Amino acid sequence: MSYIEAGQLLEKHADLELSLLAGRGGIGRHLVSIDVNRPGLALAGFYRNFAQDRIQVFGRGETAYLEDCTAADRERIIAEFFRYPHPGLIFTHGNEPPPEFIEASEKTHTPLMKTKLSTHNFIVLFTQYMSEELAPSTSLHGVLIDVFGVGILLMGASGIGKSETALELVERHHRLVADDIVHIRCFGETELVGRASEVIEHHMELRGVGIINVKDLFGVGAILGRCKIDLVIRMEDWDQSKDYDRLGIEEETVDILGVQVPRILLPVRPGRNVPILIETAAMNHRSKRMGYHAARELSNRINEQILQKNARKASQESS
Length: 319
Prior knowledge:
By secondary structure, the protein is α/β, with parallel strands linked by helices. It is built from ten helices and 17 strands. The strands form four sheets. It has an eight-stranded mixed β-sheet with strand order 14-11-10-8-9-15-17-16. A five-stranded mixed β-sheet has the order 2-7-6-5-4. The protein has a two-stranded antiparallel sheet with strand order 1-3. β16 (252-256) and β17 (259-268) form a beta hairpin.
């Protein structure tokens, strides 16, 4: 099961504006859900279907309720609430938790944090971050580039010319996302988004030239932080004995994290202008998404002409 540690909210996501108040011993606890829980009913003593595996968010309502409780009520709440191994407690709007909560959090090693953000803004940002952190992921060897708004993943054997092709496309005003290693996450079970490693982003390796920084050489308009993967193009050396697809009527796909992505097998040999072929493939893919399939349209026209000729021939024979 995918998870992140509670301490990562403090280290990696400064936008959440979190500060740790108590429970440092539990910052290694696992967060496994993108959802949060507002523990209003639990504070009142109702624990049926209590979402104990989620971050517990105390907004203004929960904080006001705790402030109005008697000492006996707070003692009951502490005894009941901290029986559960919460991954973390968050007080929003900059509100300070009661001293009893700080003591109980420290004693049970439950991370207790606060943020200046409103409850709504915190939940929106937290859900966004967790959706990305917990999304299924993988890493593939290849080059990801945005061509006419189509995210194309170039794959193929080492030395086939993926980086050189991508560089030519950058010179033609397309945008590089990642070279060599592409980190991919799947959102909503159908959308694949790729990005570069934080260490090597914007950089490209060219045999005989070395490492270049695409952003420095071509400007910020030549790079893109991430993009959706719409099409996979696998480059391979031209094999004379192989029968390559010449019509494109039937579409091939490749499975990436359970998503079927359209795939084109592109044979490479001297004299073929691969960047132009990739640009054409991108425009053709975009055309297909808009409902126009050139190969099938041509096939239908040919079949229609054949049917018309056969009909005329049959009519002449019958007369």
